[in-house]
Amino acid sequence: MKNEKLSADQSELARPGSLEEELLQRLDLGRLPTHVAIIMDGNGRWARKRRLPRVAGHRAGIKSVRETVEVSARLGLGVLTLYAFSQENWKRPRAEVDTLMGLLKEYVRKELDTLMRNNIRFRVIGRIGDLADSVQGELTRAEEATAKNTGLLFNIALSYGGRAEIVDACRSLLRSGQDPDDLTEELFGKRLYTGDCPDPDLMVRTSGEMRVSNFLLWQIAYAEIHVTETLWPDFRRRHIFEALVDFQNRERRYGGLNPDEGTVKPPAALRG
Q: Which neighbouring-strand residues pair with 225?
C-alpha cells in the first residue's frame, strides 16, 4: 500500500529517487509496529575489518544510534528499545568498558537537545545501580529533562540481562506480598523494566547473528524477528525501512489460524 501523503517530518526521511524513498513508499504508515527492539551488534567486527581498535567501532556506532532514534521518531513509532550494554559485557577488558561508558556520557550530553527538539522521552532499563555514579548522573539528568515529552519513548538497555530482569520482577512481586494464586501474566509483565510499554512487535538483530542474546526474553514471545548482515556502525535508515517492510509482509497469527486456513476442508479420504 503506497502512502498518499507523508507528514512534514516523514517527507524528510528520503531523497527523491533514492532507494530509501522506494522503501518508504512501500510502507503502510498506518501499520507500523508500536515497539521496535534492536540488538546492536558488530562494532568489534566493523573495526577489525578496517584494522582499527575496537573503540573505533563503538564510536562509529554512535552515528547509527543517532540516525535510528531520529528516524524512529519521525516515522511516529511509539517505543524504541536499543540493547547497548549487557550484564555479560562487564567481562570485557576494563579499558574497553571505561571507553564505552565515556562514549555513553558523551552521547547523552550531546544529544539531549536533539531529544528535546524531537519530543523524545529517554529512559534507561537494566540494573542501573551497576553503573558508575558519574554515568548514572548523566542518565538521570536526561531522563528528568525529557520526562514530559510525549513522542517516541527511547529505552536504552544498560547492564541489562533478560534473565536478570525476570529475577528482579520476581523479587519485586515477593516483596509486595503477591498471592501466588492471583498472579497472572499481565501482573508479572507490569513488574518488568518495560512494564508500562507494549511488548515489541519487531526485534531487529544486526551482524547476521541468529540468537536473541538474553534480550527482552519475556517480552519478545510473539515478536517478529528480522536479521540483517549489516554491522551496527553501517546501520542506516535504509536498513530500518527494510526491517519495517519485512515486518509488514509477515502474517501475525499469535498461534491461531488465518481466516482462509480455518475454512479449508479435509481431504476426501477423511470425509464421511
A: 203
